[in-house]
Amino acid sequence: MPPARRRRGKTAATPSTQPVLSFGAKSRVTKPSAAPSTPSEKTKALEPLATTISDTESPKETTESNVTSPSQPHVAELAVRQQAKAETQQPLSEDDKKAIKISKKQLQDYWKQEDSKSRGPRVHHDDISLEEKILRHFDLSSQYGPCIGIARIKRWRRAESLSLNPPIEVLSVLLKQDTAAGQRAYIDELMS
Question: Basic residues bias: where (predicted)?
Answer without folding.
Answer: 1-10
